[in-house]
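@channel sequence for tomorrow's demo:
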Amino acid sequence: MQEEKVHVRLLIVAGVALLWMTAVFGRLGYLQLVRHSDYLVRAQRQQQRTIEITPRRGAIYDRNMHPLAMSVPVQSAFAVPSEIGDNKAMAARLLSGVLGIPRDVLETRFDSGSSFVWVSRKLPPDKAEAVRALNLKGIYLQAENQRYYPKRDLASHVLGFVDLDEKGLGGIEHELDSSIRGKSEKIVVMADAKQRWFDGGAAQKDQGANVVLTIDEKIQYIAERELAAAIAKTRALAGTVIVQNPSNGAILALANWPKFNPNSPNDAKTEARMDRAVSAIYEPGSTFKLITMAAAFDQNLIRPEEVFDCENGAVYVAGHRIRDHKSFGLLTVSDILAKSSDVGAIKIALRMGAPKFYEYIRGFGFGQQTGVDLPGESKGLLHRLENWSPISIGSVSMGQEVGVTPLQLVTAVSSIANGGLLHKPHVVAEMRRNDQALPLTGALAPSEPKEVIRPETAATLRRLMEGVVLNGTGKLARLDGWTAAGKTGSAQKIDPATGRYSPTQLIASFTGFAPINDPAVTILVSLDSPVGQHEGGQVAAPVFKRIAEQVLPYLDVRRDVPLNPKLIQASYKHQAAEESATLEDFTPVDFAGLPDEPPAQEKSDQPEPVQPAVTVALDEGGDIAVPDFRGKTMRDVTEMCLGLGLEPVLVGSGLAVEQAPTGGASVRHGAKITLRFGLAEEAVKAMKTNTNRRR
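structure tokens (generated this afternoon):
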């Protein structure tokens, strides 16, 4: 009996234990299987915080792989208010002194009730070290990425800039933001049982694609320096220079003034960040006569030697009298372009008729976007043919009543230079990720050029445009050693006060290419409202000359005409008289290199603009030793001089034979080095002669 009672009790205990175990394991199973995700989320919410860190953007390079934009690691400070506890006032006071943030702002952040708050992001190294030295409880530093532009304002309108979260807001940074930006990085910050926080590591990293541009850093530098010098001399309000490869539409340089430093874009005015090359619309003036001529020649309506009566500088169109800038009489078609006769251009357009003229204007890409891989492009202004008034054909033929962008115009002129093919302008050459080239798709995809005029038409126009430089309004664009062709423009601006064309406010421009038979570059120069001399042939053509005479030897383009001895002798006298004033008056533009270079080296390493005038520079007792350039090519000499801050004056072709001052002489920064180039045998002989003299 007693045993039965014990047995019953054991059964009861076992039953209770079984029920208890069933309940426990059932509950555990419920929590682990059914409520697992819910409790996991709660635990993560209590134990860890995920901070989204600015992604590491891909780098941007020029066509020679020189870095123009990169991402660098920086430190950002954040706070965990629960850890600061009752020391919030003290922490706010100490951090305010270090970071320059108002104390009450920091206290408000700490009292916000959030478990995580940013204190200050992307700190300079000295401030980050100062925060670390405070060793405040609840204050931490976290690594982030910051966009950095080592060349500062060089090519700033092409590159663009980013905001605090590394989002592209201009230029290539905006246009290719989704590709360059990559995916955001998320940092997991975890807490232990005592709510002490520590870095849990990176949860996600995906660097963006690198971009290789068609921009050439050295050509860009030359364009910006010459534009800045022209702005300073003419006191123009703004300006643009574009250097394009006419054979494929690649942009080698795109410079605007005013400009800005993308490292601190908020310090610049909005108009300084505007990419005038693709966004600014202006009436092209006489440069548009190239389109008028191209259409008429392509339709076999005119011949270069055909004579037009320019009627002493006035013509009536639909009852409206249009006056020329000069009173011309009988002019050949060649002279109409060379002397830029408005009446002559109008008569040619009237012979062609508005429908056919409009067709060619559209064919050259006006009134529509070029498709360039830059944001903010304007399509210009071209009224539909049905909206033309009876006088419109006369106005448009001489570059009025039509609005263009600098990029549209330089691309159209490039089509004349290359034989009649209109290429899509572009600044992106390649995109790469992990050393692998990425296919260019969408707007970046290469496109076939469109024939806008016959090759024979383009050849005729090139000869006529050469006449503009040799005998017409563009004489100041004539190059020493290369043939050149171009067209001047002086377009009156509308006076807002009167609604009429202003007699003094003009867009002065010159667009041309060189050499004529095998053009290597097309260059556009546009100056907005120069003061004093304001015609394109007076102020823009010389800028074309200075840029071309530096870019062509840098690109190793052979000279196709001999140097004019009279021009050289004149340059000797002119430069000797003005060298001192030029060096004293010219304010150099700072294009310093990376800031982590020694300060003294930054200044001496920056190249100075090359002046075309020839002068023999003597030993000035400066701090720059002149290298021995003999035996080197024009490109090598140009690069070495730009790197040392010297101004090369190149005479002849081939290899360097003679130089003044000689190698080893000491000169000042910005000194001119005159070099004569000749055959390889002559260079070797000169080097041997000098060696024997030293012995």
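heads up for whoever presents: The chain has four domains: 11-49, 217-563, 568-615, 624-694.
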